[in-house]
Amino acid sequence: MSWIQPADAQAPNLLKNGGFEGAAPTAPDLPESWRPDRAEAGYALTTAPVHGGAHAVAITFDKQASSAGYAGIIQGIAAEGLEGRPIILSAWLHRDNPQSKAGLWLAFVDAAGKRLGYVNDYDAPWRNAGWNQRRLRAVVPAGTKRIAVGISVFEESGMLVIDDVSLEQARE
Predict the structure, then answer these.
(1) How many C-beta atoms lie closer than 10 Å to residue 107's C-beta?
(2) How many CA atoms lie within 13 A of 37 on its CB side?
């Protein structure tokens, strides 16, 4: 007996709650399994606009109130079995201020917490005023034990809505 995988089979999402359909048990305005990157921004599950499903997460960012100059959401995952392999982070983003910048990032850390690598797509162009799919591809460095996955908004005040986030092992 041989196993044949369909050519269009999608790799499993390595992230939890990438569609933001579940709320955090202790903070119903925040998505389960994700944490805010900066406290001075506003974070909320929203029902409009959404890209898919019933919810998305909205980050309201005020450049003047932010000591760091950015805000975002983060999820950390174990990197077991991913060392040396390509991965793709994908998300749908919608911003209300065309002057604000936003994008995806990945940070790779070893068992001692030392950063082994960092990549982002902050310079990628926005294709239109509505929903934009962003994709970031990276190879997981040797020695990586954890991967931090983030989506950030920065430089100008405004709202960024994030939906349908996935992290998948890419086909080699």
Answers:
(1) 18
(2) 22
Tell me the DSSP string of 57-101: EEEEE-TTT-SSSEEEEEEEEE-TTTTT-EEEEEEEEEES-TTSE
Q: Where are the alpha helices (DSSP H) in 10-126?
A: none
CB atoms within 10 A of CB 34: 26
Delineate the domains of the chain, giving CATH numbers in brackets. 23-169 (2.60.120.260)
| pTM of the shown model | 0.91
What is the end-to-end Cα distance of the chain in Å, rounded?
25
Q: For residues 29 and 45, is the Cβ–Cβ distance under 8 A?
A: yes
| Higher-scoring residue by pLDDT: 143, 128 | 143
What is residue 165's three-state secondary structure?
strand
DSSP per residue, 98-136: TTSEEEEEEEEE-TT--EEEEEE-TTPPP-SSS-EEEEE
Residues in the chain: 172
Rounded mean pLDDT, 153-160: 89
